[in-house]
Design a protein that fits this description.
This protein is α+β, with helices and mostly antiparallel strands and 131 residues long. The protein is 23% helix and 21% strand. The protein is built from three helices and seven strands, in the order E-E-H-E-E-H-E-E-H-E. The chain is globular and about 45 Å long. Bound molecules: zinc ion (ZN). The site of zinc ion has 8 residues, from strand 2 and helix 1.
Amino acid sequence: MTCSLCNKEILSDSHNAHPIGNEECCSECNSSSVIPLRLFLSGIYQDKALVLNTDNSISFIKPKDTAFELNELQEQVKGYIEVYPLMIPGHIVLVNEEGLIHNMEFNYLASRVFGMKAVGPVMICPEAIFE
Ligand SMILES: [Zn+2]
């Protein structure tokens, strides 16, 4: 069996990849992506934003001060920010406004988790740290 996230052979335990689809994933992807994503979506982290990258990895970003400055948000989406019309209670979803113009890669992770049709990095920012 291969991992539905990294496509490598699953050599030890397999795990349900939900909410990144409903197929199985390897222990590495489970601890690097699936578990952190579940925790973030449960709303326990109000002090950091989630970034879904086009290489299927995820990262967590904290603002330098108490809330993100515009340039910090732009740095994460790699350009001008656009609010994506996706409702995640208590959160703002940001994408690159010119992602299509700049031929950025389709974000499969955001598509699998949220059904989004977005290119480039997708940032999910708690309202508490959104300026
Ligand atoms: Zn994997």
